[in-house]
Queue: 4 jobs
Job 1
Amino acid sequence: MKIVFLSPIRHLASIPFAMESIQAFADREYRVDVITSSALELKYKPNHLKIRVITYPDNKGLFDYLFISFFKKVYLYQKHNSYDIVIGMSQKGLIAATLLMFRKPVIYFNDELWTGYEGRKWYKKIYNRVWKCIEQFCNRRVTFSVNQDNLRADLLAKINKIPRESIILLPNSFSGKASRKESSYLQKKFHIPEKSNTLLSIGAIPVNSGYLELAEEAKKWPEEFRLVFHMRHPVSPQKYSYAYRTLESADNKHVYASVSPVSYEILVDIVASSKIGLALYGNRNSRDLNALFIGYSSGKVNLYLKLGIPVIAQDFPGFKWIEESGAGICVSEYTEVFGAAKDIMANYNFYSENALKTFKERLSFDCSFEIIENKVRRISTNKNLKRRVK
């Protein structure tokens, strides 16, 4: 059976549930094509013979915002390749799958919740609204959709006006079992004392998240506490001013910054060498559903918990489960982070054990993917039966 993933998003390689699904299908003897951007933030080099990556030219120009090169590449490939299943990753991937892959079973891998009313300027609102209307039209025509948790699935069903039962859940997690791992990666890289209580933030540094202010505050923390930032790529001071200033504030005594793409194996070593994981996003308005109901879609939180690292997260409705499960503490402001860190360190084994338990019970990629793969097999079986009848 041959599957194609249509993914025009530049951060594809840093989305665990997408990468793991591609690998899992290949491991189960499916042939998988991935059509994606030539300007990926992290280069994607699959280590499986059954995975083929096809890129379209993405020059970040005006026409790239209309995804013309992407739609053209998809159209040309569907003319010369026969696929059994089409998976549309993200909004534009869904649209290409539905409108260009004629009469093929389509699965929608939804990664972001958009209402279509995002954007401050009038032309951005029109742009987002038009794409949202097309997404809603296409989502009603797929075989089924994939989302990360019940809260987000309920919202997707309501926003896109699709049946809730047509959505299957798949956490944004890496495959494998939850377990602790011994690592001193950060300690060796930055010459941090082995017994330090290291707070780690991996991934993006959102505007007004509180990280910049936290970095300044961390310079006054007691000697045993350290703060480390790790980002997957360098940031432009013009485009990402807040993140750039946050990283520049590192003094290599109390606050440290690492800006370089690393493999998953090294990322695991980085996280495993920390004591507490951070997931701050700052205050968001009531329309920012994607952040407020982030839930099981946070790849960083899921990786922290997989390795038994307790979490300090923003007190969004989508993160309530972190405190409820005893896997960490939620805070509303950066000023509460140090107090939360002291509370976690005072009862570390309790929080660490609950982190592992929470991953096993709620965030396992492997258990959830089996449901999707079984559904895909049934689709294939039904197609073959129809061919025989004809």
Job 2
Amino acid sequence: MLAPPSGVQSESRLLSVCALAVLGLSAVVPPPPATAVEAPQTAAQDTEHCSACSAHPHREAAPSREDVLVQLATFAREPMTADSPALEWLLYHGDHVREFIAGADLDPARREFLEGEIARDRADIELRIVTRDGTVRATASGSTRLGEKVHLMPEHNDLGIDFGGSVLRVGLHHLWSRF
């Protein structure tokens, strides 16, 4: 397990210390061109927000009560691991599942496990853009509640860019991010 960055306290609700570092992602950005080149506008950019924009809604409509109850009943018979499709589904829809857990037919250990996993609703984020030669061009870090848009102020930034995005929980050991 990764240790929190210096100055950051470890919290039991913290889902991932470095959301992108855990996923092993880093962007490769070439040096800026000597002259600016304007990219052609796409059809998606003609709308208020393109589908890759972090302000675009992430999730579909809330699951039905029946769907949640079926997944809870299935989870009661499956392992408490990522091998359980029902557990993955329940964690993905965590905010909508929370209210149904108390009435579900789950043994105490399973109920406590599911409530604890759904309560993990925060992520620390660390972003950096590195050139192919290893030069760090921009860095930013911060903390956010899962599913909420966050704007991170760059700590080092010679590209003149902003970082805005969000992080979602999509499974027991998986986060999804868009920045």
Job 3
Amino acid sequence: MRLLIVFPFLVSLSFALGCSLGGRDYGIAHPSDESMKLEFDSNRGNYEKLVEMLKSETNVVKISPNTVSYENIKGARLTQKRLEEYRHLMADLNLASIRIDSPNVIRFVRSSKGFLLVSSEKSFVRSEHRPGPVVDSVDELIRKNHSEDQPPVYKKIAPNWYLFYESW
């Protein structure tokens, strides 16, 4: 009986909070394109180091401060020393996680916002191939479409490097 009362309440609360948070505006904005570009430029060596390290990982899909996800549970694992090295660099770069989307695309999640029903992410992406669509300003797109789902978009910041944004 209690479950029947509590469940509709939780659904209503989730919906109300999602709406009251403006759909995508959680009171805390993602870093601006300009600030992320400056961060990238001043830390490019560490990002390139992470790319080189990740090239040798054959089974890693995601690294976050508290977990590592592997493609195959029986495949190769990171050593504790290697994991500490990743986490140290991630902390220095203020990264929420690293995701290997494909062998040629690595996402360095810099900012992730969300609450239950609505979420968004702004990241650095290293891609061997031009991703798409590429926009002139992620910030402008966020301002225009702040309450709508936004499929992934990219802004080029250096050869093979992009800002990435998506909301859902």
Job 4
Amino acid sequence: MDKSRIIQTGRPLFLFILQIIIFIACISFIEFFYYTNIYPDKHVKEAYQQTQCTILQKQLTASGDNYRSDFAVTYLFNGAKYQSYSTGNGLDLAFTSDRQSQEDILAQFDIGQDYTCWVSPKHPNRVVLVLRHSWTSTFPLLIPTIVALITLYYIFQSIFIVFGMTTQKIRTLKNRKKDDV
């Protein structure tokens, strides 16, 4: 077989495999980001029950140069009184380097006042005081989604190119057999 034919066939196949890898990486990132940043807050809105929480204590917790707003709250749920801790970032217990944003969250709540919160029916000690989901949390999905869609286009194009090459080879072989007969 001619080396140029191997290169011509191998190159589209290599590009096709590379496109599949890029597509899978984009979809994996989108899925990971969704289940770690968007789904937890969506789950809170759908599955947790809304109640009123009283702020007992609030503080800015520091871990090195990272910060988190923390709250001690009390609330009634299913006839029982609970006391629990909540962060200013939904279910996320992570710290952030943005101290000002955490101080702003703390400033929104006054000790002794009642605020809407969400309680897990399965685990009543799990309470969410601040929902963190907004449209800006979906912004990091924009670029991987665009890359995935472009890659999907090129995957289909590669399939048609490889399929076209295969169909052309079959026609060539059929024509050679007819010529040999």
